[in-house]
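INFO batch 0412 | record 1 of 1 | parsing
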Amino acid sequence: MESPSKLSQPWRLWTLDFLSELTKAIVALFIIVDPFGNIPIFIGLTESVPETQRKKIYNTAVLVGTILLLVFAFTGQEILNLFGLSIYSFEVAGGILLLIISIRILISGTRETAPESPETIGAVPIAIPLLVGPGAITTTIFSLQTNTPIFGVATATLLTILAVLVVLLLTWVTLRYIDGVYKILGKTGSLIIARVMALLIAAIAVQYILTGVTHFLA
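INFO prediction complete | emitting tokens
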């Protein structure tokens, strides 16, 4: 009769494989979402918003981002197929949206043309396309599809959900402590960052559009 340690060996190997793939999924998605790299952009988009409102914006952004990533992970390919779309359509659409926002900031110093609720700003453009852009959507779908043959549908689904929740939790923590950056910069510094970041947003927008169009032409 085999010892309990030998019987538990396959379970240990499976657990190590699961944790390894989960770590890979978290790292890949975190790099794509890039909350740290986007901090200057978030400051540029919300510099004219009161501190209490900013917290609502970031809470909404993380909640919307989590829901969108999970929805696209499990039904994204079917949704795209239903409407005859590709992921590159999102790149072009997201690029156009970001380009319009960046032009508004450069011209008027703010992205708003009319009073907007924190929920609106948090959903667009912070949640999508900045946090949940084409890259994050593709990475999440790929994680589920790649791990399904290895672990089965149920375990691959659990792995994908955990990866999304961990990454968005880290993003939420990052955004919660962004107010310290505002205090360091002050009002003038925030305004300068807003204008400078508008140029970066415009560059990101153009890159989105060029990438999408290039794939369509190819």
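INFO post-check: The chain has eight helices and no strands.
INFO record closed
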